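For the sake of transparency, this paper describes our internal protein records without simplification. The remainder of this section carries one protein's record, kept here as part of the documentation:
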Amino acid sequence: MQKESAKDCIDHFIKRAKNLGLKITPQRCAVFRIVSQSKDHPTADQVFHDVNQEFPNISYDTVNRTLLTFTEIGLIEVVQTQGGPRRFDPVTDQHHHFQCLSCGKIIDFYNDNYDDLKIPDDMQKKFTVYNKRVVLSGRCWECRKQKKKSDFIKNSKAKN
């Protein structure tokens, strides 16, 4: 799902939820709105913090179960990460991720070559593949700049 306005987002959620037989509650609408408007693949903790501002009596368990329900029915996806807490992705169309191993940021990117990766024959015989998603890991641009800056400072101090 591409980024939408808050109203379009809720309309999309209500339509999908009705089609799937999911009960529509203000809390579920808030969870979906927060995840779908997020730009950083939030954790359940982050979603809980934001929903809790609107619904102070909501429990962490309710938010977490709601996120897992949304994942099970295909409204959102779980992002595979290098350790750390589970992260959620509102973008369900074909795309890939870059994860920074320094700051943890996850960045969406699109690449037709990765979309067209051939599934090995032995995998096709053993499994039914529904999705192909490439995850690249390394250091993002901001962390690379920080590292170069800190290396420069270290080298400058060493010369003095």
Notes: The beta strands are 77-79, 87-89, 96-100, 106-109, 135-138.
